[in-house]
Amino acid sequence: PHRSSSPPVCECVCVNGRMIHCSGKGLFAKKSIKKGDTIFTERPLVSAQFLWNELYKYKACEYCLRALETAEENARRLSGNPALSLPHAELCCVHPELHQACPQCQVMYCSSECRQAAADQYHKVLCLGPSQDDPNHPINKLKNTWRSMHYPPETSSIMLMAKMVAAVKQGQLAVLNGLFTAALYDDHLSRWFVPEGFCSLFALVGTNGQGIGTSSLSQWVHGCDALELPAQQRAQLDSFIDQLYRDIEKETGDFLNCEGSGLFLLQSSCNHSCIPNAEASFPDNNFLLHLSALSDISPGEEICISYLECCQRDRSRHSRHKILRENYLFICSCPKCVSQMDEPDLTSEEEEEEEEGEAEGETEGDEMEDEMTDV
């Protein structure tokens, strides 16, 4: 079920005023798109917070993954300093007075709208009521087993699949119509619980899920960056933020955000490139995806994202192919990979070992030459 890099016969859809070709095998620009432009914004068909992330008190709206802690609460927890006070606290975008809990299971939402949307789509099936903290409830057993198999850093959640099934049980199949493959779309629900159907659903989530990250602290920092301040105040604020991030790194490490994943109809149509011309971000502190252009995109040009992290894109072609093959089941033929076809089939680790070996050999050779010279 993988994407083709060759442009298929496709339809045009209008997204945010721009005409974009959409086929399920790729997205192609109909008009010129400038670097930095938002190509489209999109809500996921379904999303879920990562289970370890949730367990470690990263508080997020159960529906839209909006961070529920204020920026100051977030900074205090991550830095381990309960007395920390943030300047310009008015820049925090979190509104605790709007938060609402499910009256049965006490799961938290950022607003009444999110609570109602979850109830309408899937939560009536997944609500545990008074059994929310019962480790013997089947759904809690499912969560705990998943955690035991998938330690951080997380890339997906079993609850993404659970919400998909729950949505169908609540009659929401029409909402998910554009997502399901032919193998799943026309079959009975029971098929998903036999090994073949479950594997199909698992593969769908695993190969098309998009990571989501939200942070009230990050939004506060962006707000601070936008402030117009005298030079001395700017230097003091920047110094405060730099020290805060050092304290957080010492206390918490790299796990700063509320994290989860979602299935997006348009975004999942984007093919991979090791030199992408677009990237996804979540600047609204919720699950709303913004796809932005990394470079100018011409009419007819394919809109590509990278399935690799930034640091992975700089690795050898062989290493990149290994990651993509293991996680997404395809071989990349983007321009960068094609241009590196003649490179040796070594992973980046092997290359580093080879370089270290050559360096050691050169050092030994130099020492031998010195000894011979002395003789």
TrEMBL record:
One of its GO terms (molecular function) is zinc ion binding. Residues 7-308 form the SET domain. It comes from Nothobranchius furzeri (Turquoise killifish). Residues 342-375 have a biased composition (Acidic residues). Keywords: Cytoplasm, Metal-binding, Methyltransferase, S-adenosyl-L-methionine, Transferase, Zinc, Zinc-finger. The gene is SMYD5. This is Protein-lysine N-trimethyltransferase SMYD5. It comes from the Eukaryota. It is found in: Cytoplasm.
